[in-house]
Amino acid sequence: MSSLSAPSKFKLPQEASIFLVLAGICLLFELLGWVVNDQSFLFNLDRLQIIILQMSVVGIIAIGVNLVIITSGIDLSSGSVVAAAAVVSASLAQVSDFPRAVFPALTDLPVFWPILAGAFTGLVIGLINGSLIAYTMIPPFIATLGTMVAARGFAKWFTGGMPVSMLTDDFAWLGSGANPVIIFLVIAAIFHVVLRHTRFGKFTYAIGANRQAAIVSGINVNRHLIWVYTIAGLLAGIAGTVTAARAISGQSGMGVMYELDAIAAVVIGGTSLVGGKGRITGTVIGVLILGVMTSGFTFIRIDAYYQEMVKGAIIVAAVVADQYRNRKRRA
């Protein structure tokens, strides 16, 4: 006697759902573009290129922030790390005939050194974040808030409030054309593999899902958290270096609010703020959603102040949806 099994309820993968949101937003701006400006929003290659280039730096930061949030942490220092790394890397990328070089004896260096300096600046700040959180038990919000203020102060002190300009062509090449996008996509691909297929990724998810259970299972939680925050700082340092290369200048005001854009992209991409859940693919789509929204609002001439209010509302809505999913899963 054969038994018929009940048909399983079809459910879209979370990334597919987020991609449908992206498609819906694109179509909405396409419609508004014809209504308001009598021109297409989507079928403009220059505009699409600008969207991707603008969000590539935030995307690099968001990859690191994603790791942090999966562990149920938070990193508010990313934007200030961008500024600190930008001014340090730019100071080692100046040309020798500039009379006001920060380090006159260290001009016209091979491009490897300013890139390394910017990445190392971010790594050190990330290491400080991780060490504070792991060994002093300071809440991540407070620890990274402190380093956010300190890193921005360092950038202002380092430059004296003046831009670091006259950079070499080799360094500027790093931020030219599609290079920032390529860097973002390569980093995203690497950490997609790391999270899904390595022990590091399994430990990251385990700590976020249940820290006490992770400790009992033998995971060195403190050491792993230091690694996670150090990687997040390193990626923010790389983002700062790319930012300086794109602007052909290093300034202490760079990266303002980048940390909130990165957090927004991660949350919109489906990473749970309670930890233990999230994917790089979702974060990449979240970055694209933010980029499309920013460009779309500008395209239909919505005031920048309204853009910030809408962005804040979307972040709140994404968090509310995340809390609803968590309650439904526990029920």
Features:
single chain; 331 residues; mainly alpha; 13 helices; 70% helix; globular
Compact overview of the structure:
Helix content is 70%, strand content 0%. The protein has 331 residues and is mainly alpha-helical.
Word description of this protein:
This protein is mostly helical and 331 residues long. Helix content is 70%, strand content 0%. It has 13 helices and no strands. α2 (45-70) runs antiparallel to α10, α2 (45-70) packs across α12 (280-299) and α7 packs across α8. It is globular and about 65 Å long.
How does the SSE layout of this entry go?
Blueprint: H1 14-36, H2 45-70, H3 78-91, H4 112-135, H5 140-159, H6 169-173, H7 179-197, H8 199-209, H9 211-216, H10 221-247, H11 258-268, H12 280-299, H13 304-330
Helix pairs in contact: 1-12, 2-7, 2-10, 2-11, 2-12, 3-4, 3-5, 3-10, 3-11, 4-5, 4-10, 7-8, 8-10, 11-12
